[in-house]
Amino acid sequence: MEELLTGLNESQQQAVMETEGYIRVIAGAGSGKTKALTHRYAFLVNALGIEPSNILCVTFTNKAAHEMRRRVKKLIGGEQDTGFITTYHGFCVRVLREDIHRFFYPKNFVILDVEDQKTLLREIFEDLGLKLNDKTFKRILDKIGMLKGNTHYVNQMITRDAMVPLDDAGDLDSQIIQLYLKKQKRVFGLDFDDLINFTFVLFHKYPKVLGKWQDRLFYIQGDEFQDSNEKQFELMRMLAEKHHNLFVVGDPDQTIYEWRGADPKYMVEFQSFFPDAQTIFLNQNYRSTPEILAVSNSLIKHNVFRVDKEMITENQEGLKVIHYHGKDENEEAKWIVDKIEDLLKKKQASKDEIAILYRANYLSRFIEQALIKENIDYTIFGGFKFFDRMEIKDAIAHLRMIAFGDDLSFARIVNVPKRQIGKKRMQFLRERAEADGLTLYDTLKKYVDHPRLQRTQAQQFIDAIESLRSRKKDNHVSELLQDALQRTGYEAYIREDGDQERLDNLTELLHSIVQYEQTMGEDIELEEYLQMLTLYTDNDLEGKSNTVKLMTIHTAKGLEFPYVFLVGMTESVLPNVRTLRDRKERGLEEERRLAYVGMTRAEKELYLTESEGYQSGGVKKYPSRFIFELDEDAYQRIGILDEELEKEAKEYIKAAYGTDRVANEQGHPKGTKVRHPVFGEGVIEEIDHKKNTYLIYFDNLKAPRPISRN
Ligand code: ATP
Ligand code: MG
């Protein structure tokens, strides 16, 4: 127990030992929130004797959940099942696996990713004789997303009988969506939205099920709580209703998912939801040098909608933060790579300690080229669509055939390699399947001797799948996959293709499964593995060790690296162009928080880079307004930013959607001549957004006076 508390400051210790009731920890980046949370978990287990299966601990990404699990296991010993350290989606899968049969779904339902959704839609479009292009696809998916914004539609899907699409569902789009839901139900597929929605409906329709979970979860903890949306918050609130032990940590300055419905009010107004809640503040930063902290703070202070937090640090002084300005993209990339080589050689840094962060995935490209040229190994998180690759999807489809035998996987691999089951025969199978109410695979088994299926290799396919199924229980997932790829001839098919990269990817997949089996340290059922896998996004791949890490700022949330390059800091990239177009102050503030999250990932050295030139679309590039907002004493500039360009940039920013513009819209801009009933004539010198005052020089007074803006 002692061990869990040493190394924590007093407030952190309080957070660990106050185990009962509703508690929130509000604190800035790098102040040890996540550390307090993991130690608290271990304290509950080691000191209070609580079973890990009675503690729910949620985070937002699988990567974060993984990392937390690893840290907790270090503290409590590796043997215990920490399955409830998970994401919101992961938790919903656990709930549904136990009780989705009440909705007439099998517990081995399939989780659909975007590719699967596309496949279902493609079939519908084919059936209707329509063409599906990217634009239509996106439109329909958006509409489906909108429909799934609330839970009404779920009722239509959970009846015992096959779903009947509404006849006069209105326009063509709505009809397509109805058909889509029907198909979804046929394959027992749930997409990410469904996971949460089905769980909600399950809890509402079956209070006993909710009660079971409420009973079970004595303690509930949440990291990064500032990014909770309404459903996620509601889920936590509901689950905590029995034992009233909810512990959340977060930093409102790091809310970066407002665009997806996150609302910091659940953190900020925690007390209004739970009146006897306690609040703990942490004010010491342990992550970064004073220089990095100063620069980050000078940026976030420009947000109006925020509560100021004074952060201190006792960390040693380090190097000044650097802003590099290049003449073009190549120069920027070259400077970054040179700097990295410097770090590796002169400072004996390891590549693992270096991260390159950016606003959007496409920005990785220009850096990548430079890294390749200099032979520096790197890993990209996100953007690198490992699980979207054809061979990976095919391999997973084999596993899904063994586990679920779902139509999607069947259609994907039944004719790969060629088994003479082409379009016409598939059509035949589909018709029979519809008529007999069977899956495509069961239909194939039933009609394998039918004249229409003669001269196909259907029987071999069936034999392979059946034999694998019979061994499912006694084999590891990795062994099953290896066998599946061999027995079905898939591996040979890829080998013949001669594409080494594909073979390497298959090996990489096997390797990742073995790794997963090892870190979990438990026997994993195939079904469970598959469901978890679909929840994974590319962001969660562990990545090769000893490589420079490239990722978006969103992905870097909660992480830390000794050396950070925040690149492509160009106006209309960060803040991004959409935000500027919308002219919403809140959007701009979210972009500023994003920059803040990026900067506060750095422990020892921070580099902000951007360059001149033109963006695609012919827009001239200027340094981001966020660069100009930084405290000038707090950073050093390398590279020449011409006075002329700087002036132009500032005008551009002002015209686009400048901070002065904000003042304009809400009152008077700086420099406006004003007249006060008592003090007479004056000029607005400064605007203090936080206090909502003007600082005005009155001709009759010696010193400026703050005057309320109202
Ligand atoms: P973020 O807001 O970015 O998620 P956080 O508040 O969760 O940050 P942590 O990641 O928990 O911060 O901690 C930041 C770093 O400080 C970690 O390396 C952690 O080990 C270290 N740290 C936390 N608390 C202490 C402490 N009391 N003494 C020494 N180091 C600490
Ligand atoms: Mg954290």
UniProtKB/TrEMBL annotation:
It comes from the Bacteria. One of its GO terms (molecular function) is helicase activity. ATP binds at residues 27-34. Keywords: ATP-binding, DNA-binding, Helicase, Hydrolase, Isomerase, Nucleotide-binding. Gene3D superfamilies: 1.10.10.160, P-loop containing nucleotide triphosphate hydrolases (3.40.50.300), PCRA, domain 4 (1.10.486.10). The keyword Secreted does not apply. Residues 290-558 form the UvrD-like helicase C-terminal domain. It catalyses: Couples ATP hydrolysis with the unwinding of duplex DNA by translocating in the 3'-5' direction; ATP + H2O = ADP + phosphate + H(+). It is an enzyme of class 5 (isomerase). Residues 6-289 form the UvrD-like helicase ATP-binding domain. The keyword DNA-binding applies. Coiled coil: none annotated. Pfam families: UvrD-helicase (PF00580), UvrD_C (PF13361). Its EC number is 5.6.2.4. Belongs to the helicase family. UvrD subfamily. This is DNA 3'-5' helicase. It comes from Thalassobacillus hwangdonensis.
